[in-house]
Amino acid sequence: MRSGELARASDISPDTIRHYERLGLLPKPPRTAGGYRNYPAHALTRVRLIRRALGIGFSLPELTTLLKIRDRGEFPCHETAKLARRKLQELERQIRDLIIMREKLELILRKWDVQLARTGKGTPAKLLENLPDSLIRVQREAAFKKNRRSNGEL
What we know:
Layout: H1 3-10, H2 14-23, H3 42-55, H4 60-71, H5 77-118, H6 134-150
Helix pairs in contact: 1-2
């Protein structure tokens, strides 16, 4: 099956198919006499596996590593589960952070409603100018934690 056919069957672009091939997620297929890629039928199964794994949060580099291990005839099952557990922990942290941010925004909006009620028509309420400085600290802390996680420190 050619790149375009594989792309249509898996609902992604031919460029994405070629990108997967460059990363090593898809083995290089044989070429036709005309130089076109000729993917075997099982390539569709592989692309669908990649798409599902991306859908639950695996990254392309992670999948490249795992699939190269599989292609060597080894079984990265424990590593796959370990990565998925880390993704779940990260997702739970993001949910906690979002809940905190929602609570802060709700509080800000309640204060803004009071401020708007007191502001005369045609007079600026300067809502953004009155945002609390504590929000800057929260952003810095989140960026610091994210940087530490990406460096493998957390």
